[in-house]
Specification:
Layout (H helix, E strand, L loop, with lengths): L8 E11 L4 H5 L6 E12 L4 E5 L6 H8 L7 E6 L3 H4 L7 E3 L2 E3 L6 H10 E4 L13 H11 L6 H14 L18 H13 L5 E5 L7 H18 L2 E6 L2 H7 L2 E6 L2 E7 H6 L4 H8 L52 E4 L2 E3 L8
Parallel strand pairs: 3-9, 3-10, 7-8, 8-9
Antiparallel strand pairs: 1-2, 1-4, 4-6, 5-6, 10-11, 11-13, 12-13
Length: 355
């Protein structure tokens, strides 16, 4: 895969806190407001031509991170630097640029600039049935973004764009699918329509939020291969969100492991899968079933216990220490720094510090 010298997206110390509703007693006693810290200081880069993966248990902040990048949610703090294409950059006022040709998506931008940038950053949701309007035909679903962004000067031109988009996602012949409603399609076909809708505006960055988790196993490989084919033909950067390390190892270039709103380990797929450094990453890998017929009745013990704590009551120090089999006294008091254990491989754990 081709890699750019500069990232197309740079996420720095990204935070998203959701305020909890206060009871009457809390209001009367003037207790400080509590927050769910869904994303709490996340940093990473994304390059054109790579699939960057966020992996972790449910509730760790993966989907919230994706929604922040696509501006479906406003961040509480941090920065999301995005480098638009030359065509779009030429239409953005100089004052909107933060640094070196990057626009900070975490800032409030003029409406016309926001609209230009939304066109270049698209998302594919987990549930293809829930993300498609059941009252609209496939043709209308794909035409809507063209109308919103003023793409196509006539109905005939838009029809041609929709025809090509359906052909690109292997829904052929397109005329057989244009006039169908979502309920008339299979799960795999619905997800292909979702990808067609995301790709029809020719984006640079696509957030794929567990796009195969609700599909049959037989269909998953087809959708994953479709993603790679689209990337090869369009030169995309994917943010792939999943809880399945087996899928991540097949598709992704780099992996970041999230736990309770923070990235605890990040590196190339080979380094993270074959040489995990964080106890949480090791536990996730241990939970992946072995494709060995001899061990088909053997259940491997996962080396961690319990459930993920509430993001409204994050443990002090290392937030993984209540479940960690290697926890030390220091882990419950101090948050570990991010260490580079080898070039490009980062981990946040006291086991790897010499102090």
């Amino acid at each position: 895969m081709r890699m750019m010298s500069e990232p197309v997206v740079k996420v720095r110390d990204l935070m998203k806190y959701f305020p909890l509703r206060r009871g009457i007693k809390e209001i009367i006693t003037m207790k400080p407001r509590r927050f769910v810290k869904a994303v709490d200081g996340v940093s990473f880069d994304m390059h054109i031509g790579e699939v960057f993966c966020l992996v972790g248990e449910s509730g760790c902040g993966k989907t919230t991170t994706g929604r922040l990048i696509t501006r479906l949610l406003e961040p509480t703090g941090g920065h999301i630097y995005y480098k638009p294409t030359k065509e779009v950059a030429s239409q953005i006022p100089e004052k909107c640029f933060a640094e070196n040709g990057y626009v900070d998506l975490a800032r409030k931008l003029p409406k016309h600039v926001d609209k230009l940038l939304r066109r270049e950053i698209q998302i594919v949701f987990q549930d293809p049935f829930g993300s498609l309007d059941p009252r609209m035909k496939v043709y209308d679903i794909l035409k809507e973004p063209l109308i919103v962004h003023g793409v196509g000067s006539s109905e005939g031109e838009r029809r041609e764009i929709i025809y090509r988009a359906l052909s690109e996602v292997k829904l052929v012949p397109p005329e057989q699918f244009m006039n169908r409603y979502p309920h008339m399609l299979s799960g795999g076909q619905r997800q292909r329509v979702a990808f067609a809708r995301a790709m029809i505006l020719k984006p640079t960055v696509v957030v794929a939020d567990e796009p195969v988790s609700m599909l049959d196993v037989s269909i998953r490989a087809e959708i994953l291969q479709l993603m790679l084919d689209l990337q090869a033909s369009r030169d995309l950067a994917y943010l792939f969100i999943t809880h399945d390390l087996a899928v991540a190892s097949y598709l992704c270039t780099r992996i970041a492991v999230m736990y309770l709103g923070k990235i605890v380990e990040m590196g190339s797929t080979d380094d993270v899968i074959n040489n995990p450094q964080h106890p949480y990453t090791k536990a996730l890998i241990a939970a992946v079933p072995e494709p060995d017929p001899k061990n088909r009745f053997k259940i491997r013990e996962v080396p961690i216990k319990g459930e993920v704590p509430s993001a409204a009551a994050i443990p002090p120090g290392c937030r993984f220490h209540p479940r960690c089999p290697y926890a030390m006294d220091r882990c419950s008091k101090e948050e570990p720094p991010v260490l580079e254990v080898k070039p490009g491989h980062y981990v946040s754990c006291w086991l790897h510090t010499k102090k």
